[in-house]
Design goal:
The structure holds two protein chains of two kinds. Chain A is an alpha+beta fold. By secondary structure, chain B is α+β, with helices and mostly antiparallel strands. Chain B contains three helices and seven strands, in the order H-H-E-E-H-E-E-E-E-E. Chain B is 22% helix and 44% strand. The two termini of chain B are 26 Å apart. The radius of gyration of chain B is 15 Å and the shape is globular. The chains are: A alpha+beta, B alpha+beta. Chains A and B meet through strand 13, helix 8, helix 9, strand 19 and helix 13 of A and strand 2 and helix 3 of B.
């Protein structure tokens, strides 16, 4: 046992109302506890239902430290199971996606399982007749985890303890609604491949950065600023390449990001771009707008298309860009190692230009070869290394802190406030310490 | 132009990258030139399927100008080395198509990244010299989780 395991007070002491201790990013014990508590007792994004359209289709991933598999059931529902043979623990699927037919089958001793995880067959099963096997958890087969979804977005909760799905996300689910409703038929499909970018930094640095609006004009001056220069002097009516349309707004002013606004909700969720965002000025597609009005009526269509939130954080595992239908999925690997997987979607029933836009954005921003991503990732690594410096063990989250934000459940403030990060850590502290108290009971 | 001339062109192209002579490298591309690193094996669609990189002259110019500015992520700067295999060369109606396995190393500070793959060039004859219409880089691990790759492969 380390310093923090049995000591919720020590964990609580890592967070002040306006600062956080460096151990949250550096300490291996804290990382292990995050996986056991925060990442087990909250709702973690698994995948999208369109990745498993047919019975027996599966998608395998990890939640926190655990291998899981999302699988389409015989009855059409989606379940998430622990990807582990009940016998000796081998992973049952070892490719990211595929179709199982009607059964999981372990390659080692040929134990097989129905799609719901229950045991279908064990070779020479009579060998277990006079044993206690049937009294163990293994007899139930592959263990299911709590699964819930919202409009095709499938989440799981590994622990039996924890909030309900709707109680956990609350009003934050509206960002998924706005994203899905950009399809005239209200349907998204994962499309265009997944970019997998390995970061040598703590997962929270990435999640915090998604609502950090004070960095683009600094960290991205070299990419967005250069894009702006390259396009300067072009006639106003020159057709603007998607790349210019998408990259240049990263160089917007402090005032722009301040006026964008940020809204924070309980349990660490938040979004920037309450009023508008860097995605607000993409070229209009009149035929699509007509289709949207036909599908939703003028008022609702206007609301959907006028809602262009910047990043919504579904704490701790998912960030969503509704206006451009891309998501980034956070997979922590170690205190200083994080995999970010970025997916794009096809808004069903919308012209192809939207998928092209989403795919282009994903490549420009989220690829391991991205000129934007390089500078973000570099800054995270600088923090990961710089925090080893002693003398000041605290990370400042003071920007626009006011005492009266404490205890409020739903707040919208100026976009450059660091309130979203403070809000994340308040949820972090709650789940990390509630966990400790439950374990001790 | 002989096959030996085409091979020399490819060797020089890689050498310009290794020596960070990006403007001279850029000049090797035709007006419609494209630098493409697919995300999927055998990928044919670069419009509705994303790529690790897919850059026309505008985006290549952006990447080059950014590197010249010394952005945050280039402190310290990266250096690269291509190790090339003798290319296979086939004639096309207006030029050549080549297939060239490579090793590529990129270093930055104490860290070194290794990539292995094949480069496929579509070369077009412009003013009696080869120009790159497409440089396609098929990474052996194109679908793997990758760290930052900052220079041109």
């Amino acid at each position: 046992m380390g310093h923090y395991h049995d000591n919720p007070a020590a964990i609580r002491a890592l967070l002040r109302s306006d600062a956080v201790h460096r151990d949250v990013y550096l300490d291996p014990e804290i990382f292990a506890l995050e996986m056991q508590r925060l990442w087990a007792r909250t709702w973690i994004y698994v995948g999208h239902a369109s990745q498993v359209p047919n019975i027996g289709d599966y998608y395998a991933t990890t939640l926190g430290a655990e291998p899981v598999v999302m699988v389409r059931q015989e009855d059409g529902r989606v379940r998430v199971l622990r990807n582990r043979c009940a016998h000796k623990g081998a992973k049952l699927v070892n490719t990211p996606a595929g179709n199982l037919g009607r059964f999981f089958r372990c390659p080692y001793h040929a134990w097989s399982y129905h799609l719901d995880g229950s045991i279908a067959a064990i070779p020479k099963r009579d060998g277990y007749t006079h044993t206690r096997f049937n009294e163990t958890k293994a007899a139930a087969g592959m263990a299911a985890v709590h699964t819930a979804g919202h409009r095709g977005f499938i989440f799981a909760r590994l622990s039996d303890d924890g909030p309900t799905f709707d109680g956990y996300f609350g009003a934050a689910l509206s960002s998924i609604d706005y994203m899905v409703d950009r399809s005239p038929v209200g349907k998204l499909q994962v499309a265009g491949g997944v970019l997998r970018y390995l970061h040598d930094s703590n997962w929270k640095m990435f999640v915090e950065n998604l609502n950090d609006t004070m960095h683009p004009m600094a960290a991205h001056a070299s990419s967005a600023g250069t894009a702006k220069q390259l396009w300067a002097g072009k006639p106003a009516d020159a057709p603007k390449p998607m790349a210019i349309e998408q990259l240049v707004p990263f160089a917007e002013s402090y005032d722009f990001f301040e006026k964008m606004g940020v809204r924070v909700l309980p349990n660490g969720h938040s979004w920037t771009g309450v009023n508008f965002s860097i995605h607000s000025s993409y070229a209009a597609v009149p035929e699509y707008e007509q289709a949207m009005i036909a599908a939703y009526g003028e008022e609702r269509a206007k609301d959907i298309l006028g809602t262009v939130r910047h990043n919504t954080v579904y704490y701790p595992s998912l960030t969503v860009k509704g206006a451009i239908q891309t998501i980034r999925v956070v997979r922590p690997l170690a205190p200083d190692r994080t995999l970010i997987e970025s997916f794009s979607f096809r808004p069903v029933g919308a012209p192809d230009v939207f998928l092209r836009r989403n795919v282009t954005y994903n490549r420009l921003i989220n690829s391991p070869l991205s000129v934007v991503g390089h500078d973000d990732q570099h800054c995270y690594r600088l923090m990961q290394e710089g925090l080893a410096a002693c003398g000041n063990e605290w990370v400042s989250l003071h920007r626009d802190f006011h005492e009266d934000e404490l205890g409020q459940r739903d707040q919208t403030v100026g976009g450059t406030s660091e309130i979203a990060m403070r809000n994340q850590f308040r949820a972090w502290s709650m789940f990390m310490t509630q966990g400790a108290e439950k374990e001790r009971r | 132009m002989t096959d030996a001339d085409i091979a020399r062109f490819l060797y020089r192209e890689a050498r310009l990258l290794d020596e960070r002579r990006w403007d001279e490298w850029f000049a090797l591309f035709s007006e419609d030139g494209l630098y493409w690193v697919p995300l999927a094996r055998g990928q044919t669609d670069r419009e509705t399927h994303t790529s690790l990189a897919c850059e026309d002259r505008l985006l290549l110019r952006l990447r080059i100008e950014r590197l010249k500015r010394g952005p945050p992520s280039q402190q310290p700067p990266s250096f690269c080395q291509h190790v090339l295999q003798v290319p296979e060369i086939a004639a096309t109606p207006d030029g050549w198509r080549t297939h060239m396995p490579f090793c590529y190393a990129e270093v930055r500070g104490d860290a070194m990244l290794w990539l292995i793959g094949t480069a496929e060039h579509d070369l077009v004859r412009v003013d009696d010299a080869p120009r790159i219409r497409l440089k396609r880089i098929n990474l052996l691990n194109c679908d793997a989780a990758l760290p930052s790759i900052q220079l041109f492969i």
